[in-house]
Write the structure tokens for this entry.
Amino acid sequence: MSGGCTADSFSGRCCNLVPGEFLLTQEDFRRIAAMIHADSGIHLAETKAALVYSRLVKRLRALGLASFRDYCKLVAGAEGLDERQRMLAALTTNVTRFFREPHHFEHLEKSVLPPLIKAARRGARVRFWSAGCSSGEEPYSIALTLLSAMPDAGEHDIKILATDIDTEVLGRAKKGIYAAADLDPVPAKLRARWFVPVLVSVSGERKAESCSVAPQLKNLIAFRDLNLFGPWPMGGKFQAIFCRNVAIYFENSAQEQLWDRFASKLAAQGFLYIGHSEQITGAARNWFEIENVTTYRLKNPTGKLP
């Protein structure tokens, strides 16, 4: 397939946006971007055409398709629902690591957990939410921070909800198996106590070079697939919500909607942790006060929360 224009370049409908093996026209990109936006709220500007091409070209080859036009036709139809989920997974950025942005976990340990631990020991319900948990490093980091302060947390009414729209990464998170190098940010004492070496197959040989999350750590977390712009079935409220480096993929109006919804799901004086490139905007600024950079506390509302 030629990488040049094959028809009317003025309209942009048949001009290849990305030179390469397959034709990706402006119309193809528009259709893909519209489906991703409808499914996840993620906004794809045309400047992301090269990313879309590089992430999806393997799918075209695997399916034996000749062009992105054929791919769009497939994923837009009822018979392409599974592939549409794969498309979403391919285009969702899942960059994460244990204790990413460590100041959030320091704040959780020193400022948030002490009163919550006392309340839990008196029988109170304590809940945390990792929204956009990817492959699990974030919720496991929350759990590790909790267990370092309260080793018997599993004996109390304390749980972490971990959600993501990408069912593929959720599957990896549920398994809780990580390469040894992935655990480098985890303090040695926590690695020794809460991770178990496991045998993995490498080039036909059996080698112990991975680690599995210990049951006591895993049992603190409930992994669920959830679209942040769909219904939220959770009935209770959360003392802290982590949604970091997720909102940057949404348009401003969608971000503002998300901040409002998080405010409605936080318990009194609850905390919201967001990414270093994000800020709370719109009407949601009325609900939050800045605790420190990218850490927000829910105000005592004078009006009705959304």
Notes: Strands lie at 126-131, 158-164, 177-179, 195-202, 205-213, 221-225, 238-243, 266-274, 288-292, 295-298. The chain has two domains: 26-91, 102-176+215-298. DSSP finds ten helices and ten strands in the chain. Confidence is low (pLDDT under 50) at residues 1-13.
